Amino acid sequence: MIKTLWSFAKVAIFIGVSIWLVSQPGEMDFNFLSYDVNIQTGVFLLILAVFILLALYILRLIRAVFSVPKAIVEYRDGYRHRVGYLSLTRGLVAVAAGDAAKAAHYSKETQKLLKGQTGLPLLLEAQAARLRGNEGVAKDRFEALLENKDMAFLGMRGLMRSALDAGDYKQALKHARSALKLHPSQGWILKIVYALEIKNRHWEEVLKLGKRIEKKNVMPSTKIVSDRIAIHLMRYDYDKEQGDNNTALRELKMAYKLNPSFVPTVQRMAAYCMDGKKNKKATKLVEDAWKVNPHPALAQIWDQLSPVKGKDLNVRKLAWFEKLIDLDAHSAEGHIAAAKAAMKLEFWGEAKAHLMAAEKLYPTTQIFHMRAVVEQNITHNDDGVETVLERVGEAMPSKVWTCKETGMVYDEWSPIAMPHEGFNTISWDVPMAHVISDDVLSMFRGGGVSELLIEPAA
Question: What is the gyration radius of the CA atoms in the chain, in angstroms?
């Protein structure tokens, strides 16, 4: 509508100008090829205007004719770009779907249509090569991406992934650090660098990076603190073995300050105090830890700290263990520790009472096996023992030191789980009561990290 009105307006203006020109007074005489020409001034100006407009139109037409080849080239290039980027899109979708054949097909098509272009076409070629298992080609393409300022990060990411798949954690860390320099605020890159620092056993870097991660709040602080404690305790064990007691004690104190109820730390701290004849301090350590984290290992230390000696003091010996129940009445561990002490003293009635109390709080297989022994000694009745043992199948499994990566069970906690050398993977839990969901660990095992742009579907 507006275009139509504008067209009418232009025609009206042209007519108006023409009438105005024709109406101008005066005449013009000039000689042309022996002819004397007399013409009104207005008419002459109108003819001149029309001639100029016609000349401009002809020039425009000539230019249009000569620009046809260029327009054809531009159209062809535009068409190639449109089809090329369509193939690129389809190729990236094929990579995400894990379709190696389609990814390779669209990669070749993209290279043909988008010749000389780096960036996403190179990324598609590298990803397609990875799907085909051609790591050499993939590595070359990822390295080529490093020359593109806008795509350098993706090149580093690809090289890092290739290094991880090859088990080369040193090279993977190198690329991860470079990626972190490009994007220092990306939390998921921080987590990957953190995991790779651990894999490479760079403990100082792990401690420094842990503080940075805490500030960014991209990982649970409990995980960071737990790793920090494991590093300090590992250093404590090493320094103590080397005879550097002062350094060892400093590491132990740092671990204790981070979590005074972590059982492995309390065990080491209590042992240090007992070696120095500081049993009262050791007793206080166990009491404080038991209130927060009652544990069988603390009950063993409690036994060593007992001030009651000799067979004539059996009742006082049992009372010493019953103090643990007072420290935490809601835990079954205090009753189990008291029951064990009563069984050693052959106080079978007291042992049964404590075991029944423990059963109400947290019925485990250990409790029913202990009850079977107590029942045998009280009643000497096999039927009663069988009745108790039948309930073992309904009981909760007892907690143990277990690796949350492999499910292996250990007699005691260690910062490094052997033989797979997992760092800080041992926890006090029921066997196999874990689900490995950590994205970095899944990446180490061949899975993908969702934030790394494109990963084939499983």
Answer: 42
Element spanning 384, H or E: helix 382-389
423 near 198, Cβ under 8 Å? Answer: yes
Query: Which one is predicted more confidently, 102 or 187?
Result: 187
Q: Is residue 368 a contact partner of residue 356, using CB atoms and an 8 Å limit?
A: no
Question: Which structure tokens are listed for 151?
Answer: 């795509």
With bands split at pLDDT 50, 70 and 90, how would you rate the model's confidence at 445? very low
Rounded CA-CA distance 202/199 in Å is: 8
* Tens of pLDDT, residues 217-227: 888 999 999 99
Tokens 């050398």 correspond to what residue?
421
Would you say residue 91 has pLDDT above 80?
no
Distance CA 118, CA 116 (A): 7
Query: Strand 35-40 and strand 400-403: pairing?
Result: unpaired
By mean pLDDT, which of 45-49, 188-192, 247-251, 375-379 is the weakest?
45-49
- d(Cα 172, Cα 237) in Å, to the nearest integer? 29
The secondary structure of the chain in percent helix, strand, coil, rounded to multiples of 5, reads: 70, 5, 25
Closest by alpha carbon to 225, among 189, 248, 256, 193? 256
Q: Where are the alpha helices (DSSP H) in 98-244?
A: 100-113, 120-132, 135-145, 152-165, 169-182, 187-199, 203-216, 221-241
Element (H, E) at 305: none
pLDDT confidence of residue 418: 93
The span from the CA of 225 to the CA of 207, in Å, is 10
Residue at 324: amino acid letter? L
Q: Among residues 261, 201, 258, which one has the least CA distance to residue 228?
A: 258
Phi, psi of 4 (to 5 degrees): -65, -45
Torsional sign, CA 11, 13, 19, 21: negative
pLDDT in tens, 132-163: 777 777 777 777 776 776 677 777 877 888 88
Considering the domain delimited by 220-293, tell me its CATH architecture: Alpha Horseshoe (1.25)
| Widest pairwise Cα distance in the chain | 155
